[in-house]
Amino acid sequence: MSWIGELAGGAPPPRYVDDSADKVADPNIPGRMVSNKSANRPFLAYKEYRDQQEALHNAWVEKRKARDAKIARGEKVGPLEPDPTAVEEVGVLGLLKFLVIVLLCICLAGKFLTGSYTWDYQSRWLQLKTYWPKNQRLFSEAFLAEYNGEGIKPTYLAIDGDVYDVSKGKAYQLGGSYHHFVGVDAARAFATGCFQTHRTHDIRGLSEQEMNSLQHWKKFYAEHKDYIKVGKVNHPPIDPSSPIPEHCDPKKAKAAQAAQDQAEKKKRKKTEDAHDDL
């Protein structure tokens, strides 16, 4: 409806221009001409590419036939070059190379944007010492006490026999809130919360709740990204007749004593019943 605009005083529509001189043969339909405009050029270029690939493949086929004929005549021939048009399949090695390149790009981008190859993500599984740990050693209680954070040696603590390097934890350094845990196996304190009076590995008589608490802390140190297990501590055997450490909470101490008395009472009754049966 461009003629309406022209009647209203507007510009006349563009004149028809015969562009047949700028047309080329349609590569897919014989006898048909198509415009050589920019929108059609990718299709025209693709057809040209396919023709080149077909010519290369036919030339390779001729080379292979000539080589096979020489072999049939008993002549010596060299190895046949691969088909230049063959599509290469991506194997396991190619996939691994691709993944390595992607991982490398991600690490370099993290270093450029955040200053960290791991994008500031901290995990024990990203540390080499998790996979190549130092040789673990056996500590005596006296030797473990030397790693108390007060000298040049690293800071160690033990929990239920396992020794961990906690040097990266500020709370374990001299004056820190958890300094009383270092240089000793304070497994009982982890379970009961009696940090000053239960700095011992003696876990006799602990309640189920306290044992669960101890297991929680053991898992905490085993999975912590900064604390690495360095060995085990060799404790002397505990005399079963020695008294169980008293709880720092009077109510819990009373309940523990009652439970211990009840256990001893059952033990004596069992012994007496065994004598009566004789």
From TrEMBL:
Sequence ranges assigned to domain Cytochrome b5 heme-binding in this UniProt record: 139-234
Q: Please give the GO cellular component terms listed in this UniProt entry.
A: endomembrane system; membrane
| Segment forming the signal sequence | none
In this chain, the stretch annotated as Disordered covers 232-278
Family from the record: Belongs to the cytochrome b5 family. MAPR subfamily.
Protein name as annotated: Cytochrome b5 heme-binding domain-containing protein
